Amino acid sequence: MTGLRKRSVNLVGHATSLALEPEFWAVLEAAAAAGGQSLAALIQSVDRERGERPLASACRVFALEHVAQTTASGRATRAID
Predict the structure, then answer these.
(1) Over the stretch 61-77, which tens digit does the pLDDT of each residue have?
(2) Residue 60 lies in domain
(3) What SS3 class is residue 2?
(4) What angle do CA 57, 62, 66 make, to 5 degrees?
């Protein structure tokens, strides 16, 4: 993985800086597009559900879970074909 990439996100009316590796940003962007929502809306959703976890960590965990679900769905689809 390469270095962190910072982006500014508006959460509940407050600008928040979020730094993630480009690979995580790519997964979050794909997840947002797949869900028919903006990246900001996806991050707001992650923020609401994160509990005590830092936002950057919650975004990474969300991205990993998204990839795992997508991979599992792909396997299930291939098994049916």
Answers:
(1) 999 999 999 888 775 54
(2) 5-80
(3) coil
(4) 150
What's the pLDDT at 2? 63
Q: How many domains does the chain have?
A: 1
The 10s digit of each residue's pLDDT in 27-56 is 999 999 999 999 999 999 999 999 999 999
Output the pTM of the full model: 0.84
Give pairs for 57-61: CB < 8 Å, separation 24+: 59/18, 59/20, 59/24, 59/28, 60/20, 60/24
Report the CATH number at residue 42.
1.10.3990.20
> Reduced to 3 states, what is the DSSP secondary structure of residue 11?
strand
| Distance between CA atoms of residues 56 and 73, nearest Å | 26
